Amino acid sequence: MSSFTTTRETVKLLCKSIVTRLENKKMVVFLPQKRTEIVDEVFSMLTPVVLSEEDLRDLTLNKMKSKSDQLNEAGASEHQQYRTAKSMLKEPMTENELHGLYFQESLKSVSDRVNKYLMKSKNIEDVFGSDEEIGLAVVDIIKRFNPKDLH
Question: How far apart are CA 15 and CA 27, in angstroms?
Fold first, then answer.
């Protein structure tokens, strides 16, 4: 395993990649000065369903704090406690892990969220392509996104 760790910034870069690639594929049109706002809105929408390793670490530490009395009674070291708590949190997510990002929903559900956003956002001038075409494009962008390529 490498020392590379995904962070919230990695999730933001994924959102930027989705917006940029949809624009490059001529599937969405927006004013250039709206790009940052659009990326921020997509990031806010996806943050609850796309977790980074940093998010997972924070969740693990919070879980440990809330269970500290029970864990201390068990006599486990802090390192053992952390590993156990992290593996318990991570276990249900491993089938939806991709390049160090943990998806709380299927990629199709994530792409549906993006699609709904594009259709409703006041910052998007126009959307071209069917829901299915855009959905497939978003899933493809997510699958091809590799944070290791960014460093």
Answer: 15
Instruction: Annotate 81-123 with three-state secondary structure.
Output: HHHHHHHHHHHHHHHHEECCEEECCCHHHHHHHHHHHHHHCCC
Q: Which residue has the tokens 């899933």?
A: 139
pLDDT band at residue 1 using 50, 70 and 90 as cut-offs: very low
Note the pTM of the prediction, 2 decimals.
Answer: 0.83
**What does the block give as tokens for 98?**
């991709």
Q: Is residue 21 part of a domain?
A: yes
Assess contact for 60 and 85: CB atoms under 8 A. Answer: yes
Is residue 59 domain-resident? Answer: no
Q: Would residue 85 count as lying in a domain?
A: no
Order of strands across the sheet that contains 101-103: 50-51, 101-103, 97-98
Distance in Å from the first CA to the final CA of the chain: 16
* Count of CB atoms situated within 10 Å of the CB of 123: 16
Domain residues for 43? 8-52+96-150
* Under 8 Å between Cβ of 134 and 22: yes
